[in-house]
Design goal:
The chain is built from 15 helices and 18 strands. Helix 1 crosses helix 4, helix 2 crosses helix 4 and helix 4 packs across helix 15. By secondary structure, the protein is α+β, with helices and mostly antiparallel strands. The chain has a six-stranded mixed beta sheet, with helices on both faces. Strands 11-13-9-14 form a four-stranded antiparallel beta sheet, with helices on one face. The structure holds ligand BES and zinc ion.
């Protein structure tokens, strides 16, 4: 391992060049206008794997391609699945970027671009560490199987479908057969704080919707008709507001039925972490934090469900005043879920609830866009100990255990469909501006992540599979 670690220093420029090249590709999965760019990112990843001498298969899907790559089996050693995504969130609002989102810039030791941390930079740490092993030792100490997808940011539907498919699409196996491994590794989350690396043992799930409301057959004069016809914008506002009460609880009937409560021990663990409310407020420039009554900010973010509106529309939005009673209004919103909430159960209950509060004179359509359950993974496995040792090598610090509020939809399926646990090793930081303007990745963390990853393969090789 030492030889590989030594080699990493000489490879820094090459590693940065690779990252910048991938960041220049505008692989926005949500917007069909970017489909060609998404394809180009998949091709870039596949070409990188081919250059490393791995066995590579690109599987086309209804939306964005799946890239599979594997190194040779290593007898008696674990097989490790590395999952990541090459797609990114839309870069909007564009005018808030200091430099354009797909022209990566280096500022203050950070690389700034859409996808820098989420997930191109973090995903590449594992690709580049494997490449360094192959260059320095000629082989990897464990078998690696990479699955790099292009729909993580829109719900991973094609990967779910691929897992159900009976086609022998990869190396003569079905995708589910091919993906069965001893343990999975994902770097698509964060450290607890700068200088405090972490292992994440829980993620929230999600249930995402679009609500469309329709009133009169077309826009009306609000003076002539106002007061006599329900206004869809107001109906929307009332319905969205009804989702939560003043104590921050979600009002959909049965919403909390399956929520796994936080144990006292876990609450104590969270409370013992060095988290400052004041610093948190300053970081976000808000005067107060809010949320479900009776829970701390970390509990609310990591282990309690939540509800957020992502966008809403309807009526006149341009310059000046227009007296219109709009015909339509709509919103995109989602719930973050915790174990053991079931997104399908929530959808059914939500639809019923919204219909029950739909004002007269309004028609509604609820579109269920995607859903995934939350997860927690065991912290006492030998794989987890290997991960913590590797982090210590890469970051020079012991990792703390945390949960996080974001979602990686496919993680639940890794356990439920394939029976394996996932090591969530985040190299990002909370203030990396993921999904926001000026997304960044601290370059020192990029290099430390590559180091930790290189160490991880040899730490995992010490674990006997099946134990
Ligand atoms: N990298 C994030 C998830 C994440 C962020 C985990 C921070 C832990 C900490 C991932 O790429 C992501 O953003 N996922 C989406 C999934 C959704 C669209 C299905 C999310 O959480 O919004
Ligand atoms: Zn993301």
């Amino acid at each position: 391992m030492q030889e590989t670690l030594n080699r990493l220093d000489d490879l820094r420029d090459q590693h940065l060049a690779d990252l910048l090249e991938l960041l220049r590709i505008a692989s926005v999965s949500a917007d069909p206008a970017f489909q060609g760019e998404v394809r180009r990112a998949a091709d870039w990843v596949a070409a990188k794997f081919r250059g490393m001498g791995l066995s590579v298969t690109v599987v086309p899907t209804e939306r964005h391609p799946l890239v599979f790559a594997s190194s040779p089996p290593v007898s008696g050693k674990p097989t490790v699945l590395v999952y990541g995504h090459y797609d990114v969130q839309p870069p909007d609002p564009l005018d808030e970027w200091i430099t354009p989102p797909f022209e990566p810039a280096i500022r203050d030791g950070n690389v700034v671009a859409r996808g820098a941390t989420d997930d191109k930079g973090q995903m590449l740490t594992h690709v580049l560490s494997a490449e360094a092993w192959l260059k320095s030792a000629g082989q990897l100490p464990v078998q690696l199987k990479f699955v790099i997808e292009g729909e993580e940011e829109v719900g991973s539907e094609s990967l779910y479908h691929a897992l159900d498919s009976t086609d022998r699409a990869v190396d003569g196996m079905t995708v589910a057969e091919w993906m069965k491994c001893d343990v999975a590794v994902i770097s698509d989350s964060s450290q607890f704080a700068p200088g405090v690396p972490a292992v994440t043992y829980g993620l929230r799930g999600i249930a995402y919707y679009e609500l469309r409301l329709t009133g009169p057959k077309q826009d009306l004069h609000s003076g002539v008709f106002g007061g006599a016809v329900t206004n869809p914008c107001l109906a929307l506002a009332q319905m969205l507001a009804a989702l939560k009460d003043e104590r921050g609880r979600v009002m959909v009937p049965g919403f909390y039925d399956d929520v796994l409560p936080l144990s006292d021990a876990e609450r104590q663990e969270f409370a013992s972490l060095d988290f400052s409310e004041e610093k948190f407020r300053r970081q976000l420039d808000v005067e107060a934090t809010t949320g479900e009554e009776g829970f701390t900010t970390l509990e609310r973010r990591w282990a309690r469900p939540s509800c957020d509106v992502h966008g809403l529309w309807g009526g006149y939005q341009k310059e000046g005043a227009k007296t219109v009673l709009p015909a339509k209004a709509g919103a995109k919103f989602s719930f973050r879920l915790v174990p053991n909430q079931d997104p399908q159960k929530i959808s059914a209950s939500l639809e019923k609830f919204l219909r029950s509060i739909l004002p007269p004179g309004i028609r509604m359509e609820l579109i269920d866009m995607h859903g995934a359950p939350g997860c927690v993974v065991p912290i006492d496995s030998p794989y987890m100990s290997a991960a913590r040792a590797a982090i210590e090598t890469g970051f020079g610090k012991r990792a703390v255990f945390i949960r996080e509020g974001g979602s990686i939809p496919i993680v639940g399926a890794f356990k439920q469909r394939l029976g394996m646990d996932t090591l969530l090793l985040g190299w990002g930081l909370d203030d990396d501006n993921t999904h926001s303007p000026n997304e960044k990745f601290h370059l020192a963390d990029f290099y430390r992540g590559i180091r930790a990853s290189a160490a991880l393969w040899s730490e995992l090789a010490k674990v006997t599979p099946g134990k």
